[in-house]
Amino acid sequence: MAEIANPQSPLVPKLEGVHLFHFDGAPCAQRVRFALAEKGLMRGKEVRWNSARRGGLRSRPNSWTSRRVSLIRKDHLTEEYAQIHPNMVVPALVHDGRLYLESMEIIDYVDKTWARNPLKPSDPADAEIVDRLVDWGKRLHVSVRYVSFHWGLGNLAKLKREEETRLSQLENAQSPEQLAAFYERYDRDDIDLDEYLAHLQALEEGYGHIEDLLSDGRQFIMGDQLTTADIIWSIKVLRIWECGYPFRRNYPKVYRWYRRISKRPAFRNGVMSRHKWLSAFFRLKAMIENAFGSGLRHVAAPTRPAHSTKIG
Ligand SMILES: N[C@@H](CCC(=O)N[C@@H](CS)C(=O)NCC(=O)O)C(=O)O
Q1: Does the C-beta of 243 come closer than 6 Å to ligand 1?
Q2: CB of residue 102 inside a 6 A radius of ligand 1
Q3: 90 CB less than 6 Å from ligand 1?
Q4: Residue closest by Cα to atom 5 of ligand 1
Q5: Is 305 a domain residue?
Q6: Whether residue 242 is found in the same domain as residue 173
Q7: Do residues 90 and 69 both lie within one domain?
Q8: Does residue 171 share a domain with residue 77?
Q9: Which listed site, 59, 156, 167, 219, has its alpha carbon 20 to 30 Å from 72?
Q10: Which residues fall within 8 angstroms of residue 254, CB to CB, at 6 or more apart?
Q11: Domain check: are 17 and 106 in the same one?
Q12: Helix 252-262 and helix 228-242: axis angle, to 10°?
């Protein structure tokens, strides 16, 4: 369930309308912003993520208040944020004093609450395929983390010792994210290349399947309606494309579909508006690394990998 009963944060019950705790460059938050924009809910006021000042407590109808939790300044590794999200990740959404966690569940909640522009097919069989594609995308979330940290963020993402300590003290022990355990190995260069490559291959298997679905020339993954499957998979492409992955060479249909999606006003406004400079920085970094032979292009499957898992 997306809604969290009795959130610990005293800020949550004070918030009226829609408030999103997010970071512009975080894929999980990008999905939610993309969906909000598709539903006609636009980015409104920007307030400090933890601000309880009167002027920022209420959002206007059809817009959401942006509470930017910087993953660079490590706002998410604070006790105050742990009271909002016990797994210490973005995004978190508050609607009229109620807290919702988990990006794809937040999107389902938004889709049900604002009925216009539905993001799920009405046909139950199609809806089931979308659910399976979304589940697959969710399982690959950790692979995006491994690949984008190794070939994208590099040392920029490493935590300082005191940040690591704070995270391990504050993170919910049951968190499926297991961020503390990840950083403990990542910060010490304790993850070997084979493990990173296995995550890359898991992603390639997913992209291969989307390539197959798109091979009949359809506009979106499910045909002519944009669904949550397009939302989760397009963001999965964006992050890895920013790391220099050769989509055009390996998955040309996925590449063209992604380019189409990325031209949608909801994608431009919801995902890219304040992410474009960071995105350009990562693209440039990846181009240089690819040119010098150390980039993701050089470990990407040379041709489309064989894939056996079939959904839809
Ligand atoms: N299952 C969660 C995953 C959220 C998640 O992992 N968020 C990432 C950004 S995409 C994060 O906040 N990471 C913090 C970090 O890497 O330190 C969801 O879908 O909402």
Answers
A1: no
A2: yes
A3: yes
A4: 89
A5: no
A6: yes
A7: yes
A8: no
A9: 59
A10: 207, 210, 211, 214, 237, 247
A11: yes
A12: 100
